[in-house]
Amino acid sequence: MRVTPHAILPAADAAQRVLYAMDEGAGTLGDTSLSAAIYPGGHFRSESHVARRLAWLDGGAPRKDLQEFLRHENAFAPLAPEQRANLEAAGSPAAVYVLTGQQPGLLGGPILWYYKALTCAALAREWSIKLSRPVIPIFWVAGDDSDLAECNHVELLERDAGEVHGDLRLPYPADGRMLAMGERRVEPDALKGLLKRLGVVWNPETVELMRRAYPAPSTLASGFLRLAQAQLGREGILFVDGYSRNLRARARPVLEQAIAGWEEWQSLLAAGTTAAAAAGIPIQVDARPGIAHAFLLRNGERQRLFAQRLPAGDRLYTADRPNADAREAMAGAEPTHDVFSRPLAADAIFPVLGHVLGPAELRYFAQLSPLFLKSTGDMPLLHPRMTAALAPGSAWDAFQAEGIDLAEVMRFGPGALRSRLADTLWRTHPAANVIASTTSDRWLEGLRKSHARHFRDEGPLARLERTVGAAWKRYQRSLEKAAYAPTAQSHAGLFAHLRWLGNGMGQDRHLCLGSLLQAIGRDGFVDLRNAVDPLATDVQLMKYEEPRK
To answer: Is pTM beyond 0.85 here?
Structure first.
């Protein structure tokens, strides 16, 4: 299967524009121009930003036993030669790290994690060469995530997806509990039944690849780790699990700080949120008042810690035990991170050169900057992940035949496409010239004269004009739909292509690993890896040719 670049579309993300609008001349974090920026750490396109961050890291205390920690985290599967080399390099005191990550998804979840990892690995290779020191890529799997609805489902974009019947998720009787994905056991029979149904659209090779990732016993987190390892080992990526006991122990000092200083954290996050909004960056995560930015982990279940300032001192509690003092419970439980404390936990564990982030993460990192500066005195570099969309050559040809630009296709939903096709057809309809040249004013011409002659109050007439105008527009839209209806079935293929592209919501956030492998095969997957530019921040449109049936 041949995969080739087809076109490049500029990214339209406000946070990314702000990141790259920074002053390239700012040399230190103390410069007014840089400290006032939304992203004070800077980005990897600037050598001065990289030099500043390295100087900060080299001036700090060395992180102990990182090599052994990473060896333990990556013992779940045999390492590729590139991973073994990076694990060996982790023993160097000069080693620094580039991080990315994702919550674990059933059968791999949306393919965006793969694109994140490619960018992370490419950045690490590039800067390792430029700096002549180890730069090691790390993928942080959020095995602590408790959002079962998001992690436990498979989304199919294929044309024949309707042939797969039933709910494409694993059954969990206690699905209302906030259990970490590292605690969500995968029942072999349930997995077998799901894969059997997916075998309607996936070939045996793809199904077998998925099955092997979940040997008994497995969890949603461990299965994802094995699938990611199978695709990313040759990239040199090393993994950590956000739910691992070793990681939680290393992150505990930061989480204790988040709990003890909850009020200051709230204030700093509020300041960051306000600044991000003022810069035109949509707010991604609500910095809610009255919480500490950590969870209490009890029997594998995450409980949000709430905080309250009282005259006699702070009160900490969890929703399931609102009258109990959470401080006492912490003696027999562990704190774990939330979305805001996780980057600071990573910073405490690794000498982090920078992070590779998706659009949503780039937004909430903007909210984080005051907290990062206050807590650590510095902030890591940032880089947006690559974005790609793949479609067969027949899809691009079909859209272009309708006069639809590629940039429009990527932003179309089904309603917008239907409206565009109906409008195009209506403009060539024999009734269009006559009806389109007629306006609602024509029906009111005589009435206006009579009304003006007999009544001084123009209100009733104005209301009638608005009503008739709106009704006329509805009438014209109805005619467009009526004219389009006989041809709608002929455009079924276009809507199938649009679904494959993500229905305007981004293919990489909906296309699962199995569907991609099914579409382009293992050879095409390798071809895709070689065709994309992992460091590009624009949208890369890729074309592949479907096999002849």
So the answer is: yes
